[in-house]
Amino acid sequence: MLVTDRALCGIRGVGETVRRAVDGGAGTVQLRDKRAGAGELLRQAEQIAGAIDGRAAFVINDRLDVVLAARERGIPVDGVHLGQGDVDVVRARDALGPAAVVGLTAHTPAHLAALAALPRGTVDYLGVGVIRPTSTKRDHPPAIGVAGFARFAAAAPVPCVAIGGVRAADAGALRRAGAAGLAVVSAVCAAQDPERAARELLAAWRNAGAGHANGAGR
């Protein structure tokens, strides 16, 4: 999962960064821009949807209202990723329907307890972290590391995606820890070649899976 950062994308721009990352194998793109208003987010959403061109899933961070507005304009958006302080996930599911993607940030036992109380099918996946300190989200919670992620993922009833300072070298450890995927920001947005960076992440993930399968078969 590529999580966008307009500043890190620089003069290349978000749309072109997304296009190259999807060329390299990014399977999901999350539009995240905490400082942008609804109009700017819609503009970026249109650019990103065009760059994806149906080749990857597309979700928008935080802003259910922008997801709904994008859909009204015919911009293909698959769903929303919500933080703990954002719109209620049940409301988001009701507004977007059963086929939409609804993700939720979670990292504490209290978050898991709240998730267990929700109707089944409300949340599709959890974004769990941060794995290590990162400058792309200044208000992030304390880093949990791979061991903390493993404990959380083992207790979670839905797939968990690792986020926060994740690098290609982390793929093996995180996959063995139960990660369903990797979410990255600077590893791709700040890369000189986003396509190559995405390919390296995907290759590391696949190699980790192959190694795990081979080890299990011994």
UniProtKB/TrEMBL annotation:
Q: What is its EC number?
A: 2.5.1.3
| Top-level EC class as recorded in UniProt | transferase
Which of UniProt's keywords are assigned here?
A: Magnesium, Metal-binding, Thiamine biosynthesis, Transferase
Q: Which cofactor does it need?
A: Mg(2+)
Q: Which GO terms describe its cellular component?
A: cytoplasm
- In this chain, Mg(2+) is annotated as bound at 62, 86
Q: Which is one GO molecular function term here?
A: thiamine-phosphate diphosphorylase activity
Q: Which CDD domains match?
A: TMP_TenI
Query: Domain Thiamine phosphate synthase/TenI spans what residues?
Result: 1-188
Q: Per its UniProt entry, which superkingdom is the organism in?
A: Bacteria
Q: Where does 2-[(2R,5Z)-2-carboxy-4-methylthiazol-5(2H)-ylidene]ethyl phosphate bind?
A: 134-136, 165, 185-186
Q: What is this protein called?
A: Thiamine-phosphate synthase
Which species is listed as the source? Leucobacter massiliensis
